[in-house]
Amino acid sequence: MDVVDIIDPRIVDPNVKARNKSEIVNKLAEDLFNYGYIDDVNAFVDDVYLRESEGQTGIGDYVAIPHSKSKHVQKIGVAIGISRNEIPWETLDGKGVKVVILFAVGDDQKAAKTHLKLLSLFAKKLGNEEVVHNLLRARDKDDVVNAFK
Description:
GO molecular function, one term: protein-N(PI)-phosphohistidine-sugar phosphotransferase activity
Largest sheet: 5 strands, mixed
Distance between the termini: 13 Å
Organism: Lacticaseibacillus zeae
Protein name: PTS fructose transporter subunit IIA
Keywords: Phosphoprotein, Phosphotransferase system, Sugar transport, Transferase, Transport
Number of strands: 5
InterPro entries: PTrfase/Anion_transptr (IPR016152), PTS_EIIA_type-2_dom (IPR002178), PTS_IIA_fruc (IPR004715), PTS_SugarTrans_NitroReg (IPR051541)
Structural class: alpha/beta
């Protein structure tokens, strides 16, 4: 499995209008719901915030990867949102975020393994400065997907 195999361009928004964490997480959760990835926006968001309470998901360089294992996930996916403005977020480097990659993964045993694999795949890609630079400059969905190639 490669990162680009899991990205659904329908749930990539390179121009998210959000002022805070709540707005972008809810917007991306709604996108996941609209395309059948989750069955309940509010319950899924609650699961995301439960995970957020356990530790920072802002990995630095303006990137956050909020995630949780949720029984409200119908199929595994990621929603990606990019904001032109910095959004306040708890991060390793103390900066806010502009790129948010929200994982939707179920809560069963098989999903747990997939969850860790996805996090690892994305973290490896996001450890590359060029990938992050290209995401921050992305103007359309193709730019976002191509940044991960």
